[in-house]
Amino acid sequence: MKWLNRLFKKKKTPDNSEEIKSESHEHPIKQYNKVSKKFLIVGLGNIGAEYVNTRHNIGFKVLDYVAQKESITFETAKLGTITEYNIKGRKLILLKPNTYMNLSGKAVQYWMEKENIPKENILVITDDLNLPFGTIRIKAKGSDGGHNGLKNIQLILNTTEYPRFRFGISDEFKKGQQVDYVLGEWHEAEKVKLMERFVIAKEIIESFALAGLNNTMNSFNGK
Fold this sequence. Notes:
- It contains seven helices and ten strands.
- It is of the alpha/beta class.
- The chain folds into two domains: 2-31, no CATH class; 38-220, Rossmann fold.
- The strands form two sheets. It has a seven-stranded mixed sheet with strand order 5-6-7-4-8-10-9, with helices on both faces. A three-stranded antiparallel sheet has the order 1-2-3.
- Strand 1 and strand 2 (18-22) form a beta hairpin.
- The longest helix is centred in the C-terminal third of the chain and has 23 residues, at 188-210.
- The radius of gyration is 22 Å and the shape is globular.
């Protein structure tokens, strides 16, 4: 039987895939590692009733909208509340850290490692003072822009290269009132417009999982 064993033998290739090679010079068959189909969607915010409807909690609000539309419920888990749903073979894990904004990175790192999700498959949703209200900016990497949640994620993951979805809350506040503005509630006119932005936000999340980051940026940035 030695001749049969020699006929089909495995060799390691540089890309760590296994190549089955035939002595009859047939085309090799490669068995590649499967691409991850799990995605971690992180909405940033602060826990507590006093923060529920504040501008700083837009990440939580977006995920609450998605969960409502998908008829799924968040459950308390380690370092946050979490839920998930599937779409066309992709699993979307929605995470709202309960560590408070300034320690968001701890929850992100824990769930990335627990679910074995690479950093390119996470999408962090956050508020942005530097963008007009409702403006959407999706980026593959970047600085924290002074945002404490992004700053902590960068510190814990030791990288600025992870996808983020910035939601503009504008900077219409007087000097020295930034904290009150960010932790303040939406104006009535803003509340009306928020609903249409939530619809787009859900489309962005699902496009990220299905079409990829670049296609999503091209389709939604500036909308």
